[in-house]
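Entry 14. Ran structure prediction on the chain below.
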Amino acid sequence: MDIWFGRICGNWRSSFRHVWIRKDITIIKRLLFLIPFTIGISQSYSLGEAIEIALENKEALKTSALDLQSSRQGVKGSYSRILPSLRFSGNMSESRFPVQTGGYNETTGEITLDKISSLTSSSSSISLSQNIYDGGVWWNTIRQAKNSFRIAEQFDRQVITNIIRNVHSAYFNYLKASQLLDVARSNLMSSQQQLALAEQKYELGSAKKT
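Output, C-alpha cells:
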C-alpha cells in the first residue's frame, strides 16, 4: 500500500513538474517573441549633429528667417523718407510731313535749308529732392520698422532656442531608452538561457517518464 501510494505521489509530482516546465517554456517563448520588437538597429548621431539636422529641417525656423529678412528690408526702406531722391527723365519724338525745303526745329532752335520730311525732337530733365520736415512721420516710420525688426529677431532667436531645447530633451530621452535597451538585451540573453535549461529539464523529465 505504501509503495503504491508512493508511486502515485511520484507520478503526480513528475506530472506537475512537467506541466510547470511547459508553462515556463511557453512564457519564455512569448517573451522572446516580444523583446526583439523593442530592439531595433538605429543610426547614432552626436548631440551636435542632431541639433544641426533639426535646425536645417525645421519649417518654423525657415519661416522665422524669412520674417526676419523681411523686417530687415523694412528698416532699410524706412530711411527712404529722409534720403535725397534723384530723378531723371527723357523724351524723344518724331513728326513726319510732306517733303519741303527748309524748316525750323523749335526744340533745338536749328534752321535748315535742305529738303526735309520729318523733324526729331528730344528733351530730358533731372531733379533732386530732399525731405526737410514732415512733422515727424519719417522718424515714427523708422522707429516702427526698427521695433518690428527687433521683435522678429527675438522671435527667431526664441525659435532656435526652443529647437535646441527640444533636441536636448529628445536626445537624453534617447540615451535613457538606449540604457533600457541594453537591459532588454541582457534580459533576452538570460531568457534564452532559461529557455534552454527549461527545455533540457523537460526533455530529461520526459525521458525518465518513458
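The chain is about 65% helix and 20% strand. Will compare against last week's run tomorrow.
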